[in-house]
């Protein structure tokens, strides 16, 4: 199951290493096996697997009659997911990788139901974020934390290794999603290895905003849910207001605050996104 840029850690004493940062710069990501401890994973799983979260979501069509669902919020808040997004373990890691103060750009809970969950087409996160007025892709990062095991049959992440060095690819609306120019993607695939990133629940992938990625249909009998906190550096404040926040100081907390948090119900302050506010998705497409 090993891939390039893969690391292991003690989840109770995680530290960013120079080798992780080198991998991020060289191939566009680094993968940490066992990033979350079992108690941390259990807590996060309990927090998101609740109707109060899922009812805030909307469908993203993939153009084939299937869809995945997306729940997205602007600010961390003070619940369990907020404490996780504010923790040194993830927010502090992103600051070390990006080399400066970050703020919470948004968090996404992306869900693919068993047998019916649709694909995410080839794209770069900066393909969306460019349209939001963010100038510097090198100052933006995503963390990808599976709530369930991700493998080929249930639509795990697929990447083009090193594709972040190709710069921004032109993106247009395809079905309900914003997708990259597939002719350009096909040429990049000839040079940058296409890799399936199979992950266990509680692993973590940190990746560059220009890394090309996709994921397939969920053909399995298991759901595939993933939490994706995204961060932007303070000095990359978007040019104009949009459906994600302008620079908002992030009040980081110790990792212990996440594990100690018992707030599973109060979602105030998170500001859940609605598809009609977002020009980079179409929640009405089928």
Automatic annotation (TrEMBL):
Gene3D superfamilies: q2cbj1_9rhob like domain. Its cofactor is Fe cation. PANTHER family: PHYTANOYL-COA DIOXYGENASE DOMAIN CONTAINING 1, PHYTANOYL-COA HYDROXYLASE. This is L-proline trans-4-hydroxylase.
């Amino acid at each position: 199951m090993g891939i390039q840029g893969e690391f292991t850690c003690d989840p109770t004493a995680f530290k960013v290493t120079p080798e992780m940062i080198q991998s991020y710069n060289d191939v566009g990501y680094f993968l940490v096996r066992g990033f979350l401890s079992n108690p941390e994973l259990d807590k996060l799983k309990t927090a998101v697997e609740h109707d109060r979260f899922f009812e805030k979501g909307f469908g993203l069509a993939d153009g084939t009659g299937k869809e995945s669902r997306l729940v997205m919020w602007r600010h961390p808040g003070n619940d369990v997911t907020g404490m996780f997004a504010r923790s040194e373990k993830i927010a502090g890691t992103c600051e070390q990788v990006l080399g400066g103060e970050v703020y919470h750009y948004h968090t996404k809970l992306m869900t693919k139901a068993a047998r019916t969950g649709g694909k995410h087409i080839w794209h770069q996160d900066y393909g969306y974020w460019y349209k939001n007025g963010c100038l510097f892709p090198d100052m933006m990062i995503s963390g990808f934390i599976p709530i369930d095991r991700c493998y080929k049959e249930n639509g795990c992440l697929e990447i083009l290794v090193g594709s972040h060095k190709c710069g921004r690819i032109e993106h247009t609306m395809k079905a309900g999603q914003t997708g990259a120019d597939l002719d350009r993607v096909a040429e990049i695939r000839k040079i940058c290895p296409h890799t399936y990133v199979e992950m266990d629940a509680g692993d973590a992938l940190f990746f560059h905003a220009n890394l090309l990625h996709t994921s397939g249909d969920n053909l399995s009998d298991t759901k595939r849910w993933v939490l994706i906190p995204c961060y932007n550096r303070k000095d990359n404040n978007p040019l104009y207001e949009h459906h994600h926040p302008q620079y908002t100081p992030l009040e980081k907390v110790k990792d212990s605050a996440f594990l100690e948090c018992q707030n599973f119900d109060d979602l105030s302050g998170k500001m859940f996104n609605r598809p009609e506010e977002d020009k980079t998705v179409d929640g009405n497409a089928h």
